[in-house]
Design a protein that fits this description.
53% of the residues lie in helices and 7% in strands. Strands 1, 2, 3, 4, 6, 8 and 10 form a 7-stranded mixed β-sheet that branches. A two-stranded antiparallel ribbon has the order 5-7. The longest helix has 32 residues. Helix 6 packs across helix 7. A hairpin with a 2-residue loop joins strand 12 and strand 13. It has 708 residues and is of the alpha/beta class. The radius of gyration is 30 Å and the shape is elongated. The protein has 26 helices and 13 strands.
Length: 708
């Protein structure tokens, strides 16, 4: 498969006017650039607070790839009047996939041996996505999926940038061929063929347009959806195009002299400056990525003096050449080592640990280069296209099969169907001394297993029943018994912590023949105050939440069928300030009581749950899976579990009305000293704060005793 006769072909309208370049010399400064790029990424991942912008190393790699690949294709076009696509892609397979598959296999084995089972499903999904080089799109989807935004980092997460690179390798030659075929025809139809008469001019014009469009898209999507923008390929195309344009404009030549020396150091300054000053809050990629991309492009343009006065001399040093030479394997190995090590050690990695791990990463990378990368790239094993493609297909199939197996193993434990739900020692009953239950956490493994409970985050029981972070539309579901058969209609209102109480409310609905209407929205408690999330960059969600709350209050006030409103909130997650036009002495507590008074004035009964106790911040099922022999390692002290600022708890404990019911929760989660992650063999939380569906149901009798 090739583009035939594209150069000096009268039918195509192309003629080459540039002297054909010889074989490109090896540029040691590019190897040095690779060293800077991988060092920035690795140091950022090991010490993110010390090199807060080290993620720009990925962008350096993208520019280098655009430069080298476009240079190679352009030379091939001039030499053979074609691009051998099958040969081109086979070379990419030989260069990249052997080491990539090796690390994927090792990562999968490490995950099975040491990573908690709760992480296996998402790990398997990302391993498979990485093998097929679509990991960036998986992470982009997760970034806008509320249920997936707090997923634990997996051993394959760093493959997102490799996925972008591989997509570039697939589509870039097709784009080049398309430009060489289409632009001359278009120019002739407009009578301007003389301006695009050579492949070089065609490609410069076409790739400049593509790059400009990508940059505009990158700026726009970074402003609108920054989490997604970081991963999606169209937002990164312009970085490859920047390298490509340098290759086409300079055609294997570089600037020299003192000007080149100045520009070279300017390029180093832009890269290092962005790595040191950019942070997680920097809008990226967007326009800010122009800084490291521009710095990389400057270095690619210049040679500079081959003395210590020039950047080229430093980039060409032996140490930089060594690191640049192992940069690919270094990138592959550093992340899974960093992720798995704390599970192996049973504690977070300290400074000395990280230094030793970094040494291990360098050793593994060097061994991978000399035993896997180089031999398979240049040896006979993958020497033909057929062998290369067969190797790629086989590796992908094996990773996919092992990933499916890993997922199956994750859910091979108890699924809760055999749980003794009627036992007095099930769930919160284990805290009652009168039940003589023995260990409050329960005997044996939890039922259902941690991975089953953790899955509730990805596969919510009431999908579509909760509004998103943004927007003001009322999202509602009707549950329980049919309204025409119900003895009463109740509503559940609040944020995702209110949604977590739905399993308990459903149990009561079946018992008392209630019809349930839900009005819940992510990170949006029902309060007359403005709730503020410190993590939000703008106040858009804040204003949306306030508008949503007003709509809910109006809806409830006019719905005469609803007699009781249950409400809950993760009130310690927010700070509060007065809403415009609303006077509140204490916005945190008075915001809740003001909303309750409004519901009471419309004839409703209000039932308010306390804040559930706070955890140690870890995903509780993951912590329990990692500490299966010591579940108390995941417990918190009472003081930690009930910090100051539990607004809804304080408000409910002092609010008085004959039609208001307060549901205290301390004794159902804690004893005098500890609040437990597991009670009576039931895992209490499905993540770091939301109660599990099983524990919610287990609390139904307690809630019933309060509201009946």
């Amino acid at each position: 498969m090739s583009a035939t006769n594209l150069v000096n072909d009268p039918a195509s309208g192309l003629r080459e006017t540039v002297q054909r370049p010889a074989q490109a010399p090896f540029r040691t400064e590019i190897q040095g650039l690779r060293a800077i790029a991988v060092a920035a990424v690795v140091l950022y991942h090991f010490w993110p607070n010390r090199l807060s912008g080290g993620y720009v190393g990925v962008d350096i790699f993208f520019v280098i790839s655009g430069y080298l690949i476009t240079s190679h294709m352009y030379r091939e076009i001039l030499r053979t009047s074609s691009i051998g696509l099958l040969k081109f892609w086979a070379r990419r397979v030989r260069r990249l996939l052997p080491a990539s598959f090796l690390v994927l296999f090792a990562s999968l084995l490490a995950a099975f041996l040491w990573v908690p089972s709760t992480v296996w499903e998402v790990t398997a999904r990302q391993l498979a996505a990485s093998a097929f080089y679509v990991q960036n799109w998986v992470l982009a989807g997760d970034s806008v999926d509320y249920s997936a935004q707090h997923n634990d980092a997996t051993v394959a997460q760093h493959y997102w940038s490799l996925s972008v690179e591989e997509q570039f390798y697939v589509f870039w030659p097709l784009l080049v061929l398309g430009l060489l075929y289409i632009l001359p025809k278009f120019a002739r139809s407009k009578g301007t063929s003389s301006t695009v008469s050579s492949p070089r001019s065609i490609l410069i014009l076409g790739l400049a347009v593509v790059g400009t469009a990508s940059l505009a898209y990158s700026i726009a999507v970074t402003a609108l959806a920054p989490s997604m923008a970081y991963f999606v390929s169209p937002a990164r195309v312009w970085e490859f195009a920047a390298g490509a344009l340098v290759a086409l404009v300079f055609v294997d030549r570089t600037l020299d002299g003192w000007v080149a020396t100045v520009l070279g150091w300017a390029g180093i300054g832009l890269i290092v400056g962005s790595a040191l000053t950019f942070t997680a809050e920097t809008p990226f990629p967007g326009w800010t990525a122009i800084v490291p991309v521009g710095g990389t492009a400057l270095i690619l343009m210049v040679a500079g003096t081959a003395t210590p006065a020039g950047a080229r001399w430093w980039l060409s040093s032996k140490s930089m050449q060594f690191v640049g030479g192992i940069s690919y394997s270094l990138y592959l190995w550093h992340w899974p080592i960093l992720i798995v090590a704390p599970y192996v050690m049973g504690r977070p990695a300290g400074l000395l640990d990280k230094c030793l791990l970094l040494g291990l990463v360098v050793l593994l990378s060097w061994l991978t280069k000399i035993t896997v990368e180089d031999p398979l790239r240049t040896g006979r094993f993958l020497s033909t296209n057929l062998r290369a493609y067969s190797f790629a297909a086989s590796g992908m199939a094996i990773v996919l099969g092992l990933a499916v197996a890993l997922t199956s193993f994750a859910f091979a434990g108890s699924d809760g169907k055999t749980a003794q739900v009627n036992s007095p020692c099930y769930g919160p009953g284990a805290l009652n001394p009168a039940n003589n239950c023995g260990p409050v956490t329960g005997a044996g493994v939890p039922d259902p297993a941690p991975a089953v409970v953790a899955r509730q985050n990805k596969e919510p029981l009431y999908k579509g029943c909760q509004g998103d972070l943004s927007g003001t539309d009322l999202v509602s579901c009707d549950l329980g018994v049919e309204e025409r058969q119900a003895t009463a209609t109740v509503a559940l209102v609040g944020d995702s912590h209110a949604t977590a109480w739905l399993p308990a409310i459903e149990v009561l609905a079946q018992r008392h023949k209630w019809h349930i209407r839900t009005y819940t929205k992510a990170s949006c408690p029902l309060t007359a105050a403005l709730r503020v999330l410190p993590s939000e960059a703008t106040d858009r969600n804040q204003s949306d939440c306030s508008s949503w709350g007003k709509k809910v209050e109006e809806k409830l006030a006019t719905d005469t069928k609803i007699t009781t409103v249950f409400t809950a909130a993760y009130s310690t997650a927010y700070t509060y300030k007065p809403a415009p036009g609303v006077e509140l002495r204490d916005p945190a507590e008075d915001g809740f009581t003001t909303a309750w008074k409004g519901l009471l004035s419309s004839g409703k009964r209000v039932v308010a749950f306390d804040d559930v106790p706070r955890t140690n911040g870890q995903y509780v099922p993951t912590c329990l899976a990692a500490n299966s022999r010591d579940p108390l390692a995941c417990a918190t002290t009472v003081d930690q579990a009930f910090p100051k600022g539990t607004a809804i708890t304080h408000a409910a404990s002092t609010f008085k009305s004959p039609r208001f019911t307060h549901i205290p929760l301390r004794s159902e989660f804690c004893d005098a000293k500890l609040c437990y992650p597991q009670l009576g063999a039931v895992i209490v939380y499905r993540d770091y704060s939301h109660i599990s569906a099983e524990y919610s149901r287990a609390l139904a009798p307690f809630v019933d005793g309060r509201v009946s």
